[in-house]
Amino acid sequence: MKDHYTHAFTELQIPHQRNCNSISFPSVLSPNPTNVPFSLSLLTKTIATQKQFLDSLLHRAGAVLFRGFDFKTAKDFNDFVEAFGYEELPYMGGAAPRTNVVGRVFTANESPLHQKIPFHHEMAQLPEFPSKLFFFGEIEPSSGGQTPLVLSHIVYERMKQRYPEFVEHLEQHGLIYTLVLGENDDLSSPIGRSWKSTFSTDDKSLAEERAAKLGTKLEWMKDGGVKTTIGPIPAIKYDKLRQRKIWFNSMVPAYIGWKGEQNDPVEVTFGDGKPLPADIIYDCLKIMEEECVVIPWQKGDVLLIDNLAVLHARRSSNPPRRILASLCK
Asked: Which own/partner pairs from 202-206 qualify as long-range (CB within 8 Å, at least 24 positions apart)?
């Protein structure tokens, strides 16, 4: 780390990190022990002055874990996020049940903690998605409940090597996602958000208007729910900043993990309507598990993720566990 940053942060090496091309994944920052006490107000000022360094670190590593800072409340977390100056992305069109806590901070996903959530990029099935995600460990899980991370370019490279024809077809045609949204939120499902919550209205005409802006077609159902169709939408993207192709889609969670009363599971196909081969999807999940990093949450941790560079997931746990989130354009 450059000398003029050592007064603020210490870069840690902790168990479970991976070395990727001589870069620690994720990068871990903690307060410099010579700066005691390191208050939250000092930290937010420090972020403003060291934004270039932090952006560069995120660009290199893909994810940065802030550990050992004095974050206690959702308000602390909100102030920390605000200090970065990133524009907020409204949670429009996403399927996870979430509640606004304070400012630009939401619950991460309110589905039962015993349910795993497979690897995904946030809102990858939509034309507008966050560039960055913040997560805050407000209540540390007693066991389990980790947020595994995997680098998306590594997933792409391994899939391309193992299944070149499949990946070529995916690059040419993209994916189509079809899922049903109920009239009311279903907190028993990780994708249990109702159409009213999804489009922030109970007016069907306004919901149709907002869905159209998201590239989503709606088909109203007799029970008050709606069938949504998204796509064809690209499944492989080019990360211009890092100059490499990345795996950027919700194929695995849609096929094997997005289940609920209305969807068992979500329907996902190639963009030309052809079905996806189950064996390849399950092998993709296996690759993600082989390549992922799993760091247990500690109370007060903040995790900053580049949503293009990194996929994230959720391990199952028993209560209590409370992770908060904030999305950035």
From this structure: none
Residue 288 has pLDDT above 60, yes or no: yes
pLDDT digit string (tens) for 124-172? 888 889 999 999 999 999 899 999 999 999 999 999 999 999 999 999 9
Instruction: State the total domains in the chain.
Output: 2
| 101/206 Cα distance (integer angstroms) | 25
Whose structure tokens read 């969807």? Answer: 263
Cα distances (Å, whole numbers) of residue 300 to 7, 35, 238, 293:
21, 18, 34, 19
3-state secondary structure of 211: helix
Residues comprising the chain, all counted: 329
Report if residue 119 sits inside a domain.
no
Question: Based on the domain organization, do 204 and 270 belong to the same domain?
Answer: yes
pTM (whole model) above 0.85: yes
**Cis bond before residue 265 (omega within 30° of 0):** yes
Q: Which of 253, 269, 200, 232 is nearest to 127 (CA)?
A: 232
